[in-house]
């Protein structure tokens, strides 16, 4: 970076020539069919299970057993399957969907808010104990989350929180990775001079943060929000141990309970519902990732600058 | 004070004050409740034992010595160590190859590749495991289809011998794209001028990869390795869900986490389970730390390093700008 800034000052002509060379090289870069096909193998590997899921969500239970897995069966039962999934067992699937949305809004929303606030504080202020905060949070990233689950369950059960939505929401509120990402992002995206200028104008610290800095942090916020949404939406272990009452299950635990039901003696096998339910579970997240690519790609790129 | 600020050239806004706590405090309060308190409680629990006669009593480190002599615990630990040694290198190598291929600019439709290969990350472990589990199945799975169509008998991926490899495939499918994206993001930060200089010096693509690209993303490699190590030792979701599809292949002590879970929720042995969880946390942290140390040391030895841009804030619009 330093050299590329200095060179044009010394020899403007050479720099201009360099630019044309670069432009030509960029235009003349050959695309390779071989490399595209080789990478295409990985692409196919990534897509096959998703294709399988879509294809098989169009089959009746009998069709699942009779037909080839990667092609459609005679009758197209997708809409029937969706209707069955949504109404089975008095519409429990919709209840699970509502629970998942509740956990995502409160858990991922709260986690993002705390991470943005904390990351900004770490990036832009010096305060006593800052080094200790850094050490403890980074150390905590290495502690396996599942190792914490059992003691958290016992603690929450003493507090009477198990089997309530709080037992799933509260542990989701903390994302050390999100804090780290917001920290690096805030350090890059907000010039110190801007904060100083706001201070000179007499703005309070929190007013400065909410009115001036928050908009600048938008790509980072979307990234952290998206990744904590995925973590909460996909959370399985925590709700599995915290919740006994199926009425509070999120989609993940609910789907698995349908699968368990198929495995137990006398349980009704509902494989077509599991498959259709799985498809309905992943669609919102896939859509969110595809629609918000512009934001999370730039947020991730910024987070990786300082590794 | 003003002079000092100018002299250091940074931190104009960084007045040393307690205001920072106002921002970091809320995070830390919840962090203490859901991270620090459970760790403390687990350590406390692990020092006690609940006996039929005599109730709950302090036993010192007995639970730990029991864990270290527990053959089920060792077999679980050995299984995830094997998983770590085989699955993590395969996954990271695959992710690296794809990241280099996309970064090379020689692919047709590179953003389609990037987004599609990343997509499995957004699929919950439960759905990923159910999908693959059904596909592995001989009843209405692809393996069954192939057996019928070709009249052969392929080895059952859900048999006790193969189930660990089958889980490795599921985890690779879930996370290869995520790691690819981390590597790709790190590659984009490399200044174009480095490539130009190398090309003028007559370096070929493979030389550029070895001398510029790999050293440049070493930090990302270390981070991805640490996350994968942690993930391997925590392995729970996939084997636990596959248990219903392949009950004979997966024991209650298949992985250390599954073992701790079974001890707690089937066996009510909370104290011993806490000790197992803490031993695993220590093992994980030690290995993650070793990976980090090795990664750092090697970073110091390489010739070329990506310049740090610390203290040179740019508007966010530039942060995401594509290099090419």
From TrEMBL, chain A:
Keywords: Cell membrane, Membrane, Transmembrane, Transmembrane helix, Transport. It comes from the Bacteria. The keyword Electron transport does not apply. The chain crosses the membrane at residues 32-55, 101-120, 132-156, 168-187, 208-233, 270-292. Its main location: membrane. InterPro entries: MetI-like, MetI-like_sf. It is a multi-pass membrane protein. Pfam families: BPD_transp_1. It is found in: Cell membrane. Residues 97-292 form the ABC transmembrane type-1 domain. Belongs to the binding-protein-dependent transport system permease family. This is Carbohydrate ABC transporter permease.
From TrEMBL, chain B:
The keyword Cell membrane applies. Its main location: membrane. It is found in: Cell membrane. The chain crosses the membrane at residues 21-44, 80-100, 112-135, 162-184, 216-236, 272-291. InterPro entries: MetI-like, MetI-like_sf, UgpAE/MalFG_permease. Keywords: Cell membrane, Membrane, Transmembrane, Transmembrane helix, Transport. Residues 304-324 are annotated as: Disordered. Residues 77-291 form the ABC transmembrane type-1 domain. PROSITE patterns: ABC_TM1 (PS50928). It is a multi-pass membrane protein. Belongs to the binding-protein-dependent transport system permease family. PANTHER family: BLL4140 PROTEIN, DIACETYLCHITOBIOSE UPTAKE SYSTEM PERMEASE PROTEIN DASB. This is Sugar ABC transporter permease. It comes from Phytohabitans maris.
């Amino acid at each position: 970076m330093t050299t590329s800034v200095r060179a044009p000052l010394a020899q403007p002509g050479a720099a201009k020539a360099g630019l044309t060379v670069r432009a030509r090289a960029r235009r003349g870069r050959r695309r390779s069919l071989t490399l595209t096909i080789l990478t295409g193998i990985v692409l196919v590997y990534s897509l096959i299970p998703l294709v399988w899921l879509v294809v098989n969500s169009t089959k009746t239970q009998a069709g699942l057993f009779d037909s080839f897995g990667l092609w459609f069966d005679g009758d197209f039962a997708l809409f029937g399957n969706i209707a069955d999934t949504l109404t089975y067992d008095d519409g429990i699937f919709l209840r699970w969907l509502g629970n998942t949305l509740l956990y995502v809004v409160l858990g991922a929303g709260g986690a993002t808010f705390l991470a943005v606030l904390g990351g900004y504080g770490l990036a832009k202020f010096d305060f006593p104990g800052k080094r200790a905060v850094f050490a403890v949070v980074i150390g905590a990233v290495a502690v396996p989350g599942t190792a914490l689950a059992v003691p958290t369950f016992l603690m929450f059960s003493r507090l009477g929180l198990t089997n309530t939505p709080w037992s799933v929401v509260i542990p989701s509120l903390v994302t050390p990775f999100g804090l780290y990402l917001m920290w690096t992002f805030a350090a890059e995206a907000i010039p110190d001079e801007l904060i100083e200028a706001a201070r000179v104008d007499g703005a309070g610290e929190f007013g400065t943060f909410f009115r001036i800095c928050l908009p600048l942090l938008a790509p980072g916020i979307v990234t952290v929000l998206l990744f904590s949404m995925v973590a909460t939406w996909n959370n399985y272990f925590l709700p599995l141990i915290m919740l006994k009452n199926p009425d509070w299950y999120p989609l993940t635990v609910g789907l698995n309970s349908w699968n368990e039901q198929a495995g137990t003696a006398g349980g009704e096998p509902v494989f077509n519902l599991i498959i259709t339910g799985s498809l309905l579970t992943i669609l919102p997240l896939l859509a969110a990732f595809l629609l918000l690519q512009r934001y999370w790609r730039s947020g991730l790129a910024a987070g990786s600058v300082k590794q | 004070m003003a002079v000092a600020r100018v002299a250091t050239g940074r931190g104009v806004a960084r007045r040393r004050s307690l205001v920072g706590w106002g921002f970091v405090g809320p995070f830390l309060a919840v962090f203490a409740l859901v991270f620090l308190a459970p760790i403390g409680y687990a350590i406390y629990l692990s020092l006690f034992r609940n006996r039929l006669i005599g109730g709950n009593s302090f036993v010192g480190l007995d639970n730990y010595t029991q864990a270290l002599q527990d053959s089920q615990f060792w077999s679980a630990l050995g299984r995830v160590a094997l998983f770590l040694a085989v699955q993590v290198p395969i996954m990271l190598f695959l992710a690296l190859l794809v990241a280099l291929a996309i970064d090379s600019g020689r692919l047709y439709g590179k953003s389609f590749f990037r987004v599609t290969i990343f997509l499995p990350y957004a699929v919950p472990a439960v759905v990923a495991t159910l999908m693959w589990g059904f596909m592995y199945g001989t009843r209405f799975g692809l393996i069954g289809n192939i057996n019928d169509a070709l009249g052969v008998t392929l080895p059952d991926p859900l048999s006790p011998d193969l189930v660990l490899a089958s889980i490795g495939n599921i985890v690779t499918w879930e996370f290869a794209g995520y790691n690819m994206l981390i590597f790709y993001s790190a590659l984009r930060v490399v200044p174009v001028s480095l490539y130009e200089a190398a090309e003028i010096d007559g370096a070929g693509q493979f030389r550029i990869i070895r001398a510029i690209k790999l050293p440049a993303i070493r930090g990302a490699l270390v981070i991805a390795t640490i996350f994968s190590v942690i993930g391997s030792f925590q392995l729970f979701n996939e084997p636990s869900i596959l248990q219903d599809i392949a009950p004979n292949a997966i024991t209650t002590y298949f992985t250390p986490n599954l073992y701790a879970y079974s001890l707690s929720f089937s066996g009510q042995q909370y104290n011993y389970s806490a000790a197992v969880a803490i031993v695993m946390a220590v093992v994980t942290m030690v290995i993650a730390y070793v990976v980090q140390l090795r990664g750092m040391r090697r970073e110091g030895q390489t010739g070329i390093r990506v310049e740090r841009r610390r203290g040179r804030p740019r508007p966010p619009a530039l942060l995401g700008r594509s290099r090419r």
